[in-house]
Specification:
There is one protein chain. With 176 residues, the protein is mostly helical.
């Protein structure tokens, strides 16, 4: 299997999200109408942003199966020529150990084994996206999101500062 064939297997998948965060797409994503909050862009961009937010805060939440999980949009429908999708896939591929596959083994896997790796990749994306969406939900529900055009940049900026502060505090404690 070539890398482009592997990529296509992933792009054909439709990740899910929890219905408990569904209203965030209405409030924060651009669905061709104005919402109450600054619009993020297409729905998939909010999903990808939530994935990276979940990674940043190390929040990986398992989705409940059944009626609590709703299908999103097939990844190929996320404007697959977007560099954002390539960045998402590169990030996912860089975490192959965490997902549970070895790049060297992919070439020799049969279809069933490859399907299992793709399933693990989609689960990885879903769980970190849910972690990020849950974080956004908490901020939104507590009125902690500033309605500005820089809403999402500010959120990430706050996390970067928090990480730097945490590192400084950790380093300071090591000298005591």
């Amino acid at each position: 299997m070539t890398s482009s064939e592997f990529r296509e297997m992933i792009l054909k998948k439709t990740p899910k999200y929890s219905v408990s965060v569904e209203y965030l797409f209405e409030k924060l994503a651009n669905k061709q109408k104005k919402g109450e909050f600054s619009q993020f862009g297409p729905l998939y961009e909010l999903y990808v942003y939530a994935f990276f937010l979940g990674l940043k805060i190390d929040s990986r939440i398992e989705l409940a199966s059944g009626s609590n999980a709703k299908k999103f949009v097939e990844i190929a429908g996320w404007k697959s020529s977007s560099p954002l999708i390539d960045f998402l896939l590169l990030t996912v591929f860089s975490r192959s150990d965490e997902i549970g596959f070895d790049w060297n083994d992919l070439e020799d896997m049969d279809e069933k084994e490859l399907a299992e790796v793709v399933r693990k990749i989609i689960t990885f994306i879903e769980e970190y996206a849910y972690g990020g969406l849950d974080y956004l939900k908490s901020k939104f529900d507590n009125g902690e999101l500033d309605n500005s055009q820089y809403l999402f940049v500010d959120l990430l900026g706050d996390l970067v500062v928090s990480d730097e502060e945490n590192n400084l505090m950790t380093n300071d404690r090591s000298f005591n």
